Amino acid sequence: TPRPAAPARLPSALAVTTAGGSGRPDPRIEIFVDAIKVAGIRFSGTDSKVLMNDKVYRVNDIVDRSLNLRFLEVHSDSLTFIDENNVTYTKKNL
Question: Which residues contact 52 (CB under 8 A, 6 or more apart)?
């Protein structure tokens, strides 16, 4: 009997980087960042803004106090966040 084909794996839209191995990625933050809904990006140098999850955030804003997650940088195709352990989380393919 034929076996059903395994579902194709999509490329990950989340990249996690640890700075010098000082911290471990937090699965709660990975889930949070992966679930972010981006509705718009406004590039304006140091005053760039992102509309995500129905709120406007600027670079260096805290996006979730319970996770102590800060919005670090914005690019046309990605958003980067950093936690209190200097672990960065990048949401790609916006």
Answer: 36, 37, 38, 39, 63, 79
The one-letter amino acid code at 84 reads E
**46 DSSP assignment:** G
Residue with tokens 């194709």: 8
Please tell me the pTM assigned to this model: 0.81
CA 45 to CA 18: how far, in whole Å?
A: 26
| DSSP code of residue 23 | S
pLDDT tens profile 48-64: 999 999 999 999 999 99
Distances (CA, A) of 15 to 25, 51, 54, 86: 10, 21, 23, 14
Is residue 40 within 8 Å of 50, Cβ to Cβ?
Answer: yes
